[in-house]
Amino acid sequence: MKKKGIIAALALGMMIPALHPIEASQQKKATKEVKIESISFTHSKAPTTIAEMTKPFTTSSVIVKYTNGKTKSFPLTYKRLFKSTDKFKMSNGKTFSAGTPTDYFNKPITDKSATGKLVHYVSDAPDANSLLRPMKNGSLYLISHYEYDSLDRAGNPSWRRIPASMTISKLQQTKTGELKVSTVDKISFSSTNGLWVPCAGSLTPWNTHLGSEEYEPDARSFEFDTPDQLSQSTAHVMDFAKLYFGDEKKANPYYYGFIPEVIVSADGKTRVVKHYSTGRRSNEIMVVMPDERTAYFGDDGEYTMLFMYVADKPRDLSSGTLYAAKFIQTSEKNGGSGKLQWIKLGHATDKEIKQMIDSGIKFSDIFEVSDEPKEGFVAVKQYSAQNSNYGKIEYLKLKPGMEKAAAFLESRRYGAMLGATSEFNKMEGIAVNSKDKKVYVAIADISKGMEKNAQDPVDHIQLSKVKAGAVYELSLTSSQKSMTGESINSKYVATSMRAIIVGEDLKQPDAYGNKANVNKIAGPDNLSFSSDYRTLFIGEDSGQHINNFVWAYNVDTKKLSRILSVPAGAEATGLQAVDSRNGFSYIMSNFQHPGDELDNFKPTAVNIEDVKKRINATYGINQAGVVGYIYGLPNIQKLQKELKKQQSKK
Length: 650
Hints:
Helix content: 10-25%
Signal peptide: 1-20
Structural class: alpha+beta
Protein name: Putative phosphatase
Number of helices: 11
Pfam family, one: PhoX
Strand content: 25-35%
Keywords: Signal
């Protein structure tokens, strides 16, 4: 370049202002890809008026924050799909309520308790939901539990006496993602001798539904009760058989307390398989880990146990190895923590255990029993719902060659005999965080067996009482061995357990009658984890809050947000975080028995009789529950795709 040209170029350069370092940084930032920085839920206020207390209520929104500083708000609403009393035409050609149980012949069961009125039983207790992933033909199905019927038409308690049921609903999605019911049908359990108290449930990685059978009838009571002095457990299983089979002689406690798997075909037809090799207990829920082999269970009740199952093959729960946990406490602070060791109970196939049951095996075939300490007998204390020895110490001796029968038909008793911890109280929901290899367990009430008690046969757990309960985190790892030194063939073995969210009991009830802090959890029950939201959702079943809540807990920020309250006296059930169904996200959320046990609360801010009157007018107290979902959540995967698409055009 000539000198004259150089001078001209320099002059031109001096005319163009140089970018200030801050401006240059901003320009560089502007060219960066915008991403989602965080996702959070706003905290819904607790209901304060009778109108708010007697309906599903939320003021929450999802807040999506982007790396460019912008935010977007998505308000949430509650959508009802149907009440348990709503009637539908079923595949058997009959029209009856969704919550009506059916018998062995798939006919609706008639409630003859009210003289002169032939009506069907109708459950007021919808529980678990599994919104299945869409079938290849695009069909979308929802499986729902009906846990029990609170009262018959004569007003008598019906819990466990009435056979339970499930429905399968075919759903349609609108353009905005709202769900609409096309059909509702009952699922037949005639191949599995009926369904006993199905509580929570889960969706497997292979798109089948795992149900549950809670509060298993006690085989010891059933065998030894006298005709003139039946325990509640025995009376219930006999009433169940009379209504289901039409013959109380077919009553058998070993039919129940297992995990039913529901397989759904593309046309909506269902097939049920009951898994006996997973063990028998008070099954709240069974949740399968990402390896599609390892599973954990909620064992509800008092003096219960933490179990782990490892299937022989992925996606096949028909055979496997069952383990029970020993809890070694390391701290009693903030809900407590401890290490976990695993005791192998045994290996079995469904076929083997079913053959034992079908052969007529009895409790006395498995154990010898003593009412007092005796040489060769082991003292255990465990939960069997309402048995004649409920809350008492048992002295048991295993009969020769009955190890497998004990492990899979009396899993908790046998586990306690081998040294596993049978002191958990109200162990409820289970959820898995696959990315972090964590399992979450809800303990609705830290008391009784979880408190220090020198009178118990063992006292592994010694925690301070918190009636409001806590949620615990279990850390999973591989290359573990059982307490007898055998390798555990799983990469998802829990080795520690610690409380991460703890409720707070109040010394005196507040103005609404709440016995626990309304800004913290109380009676955590249903759990479900969203990978997209990095959030653990918690549904309550509490006698501590007059309105039970659904909470969102971000596992990264540790922020706890109330996102829904259900009608006073109702339990928040059916919780399922659904990250994506045809590009839409949902939180499935039911509620059961609105208006129940409200006399246990003594509010001064509202008149409890006015609350009951309003609930009774809308649902009927202990008459109807609701199947529904929380609507308005953004689909995170869709938002991320839209961001990339927008920026690719720039």
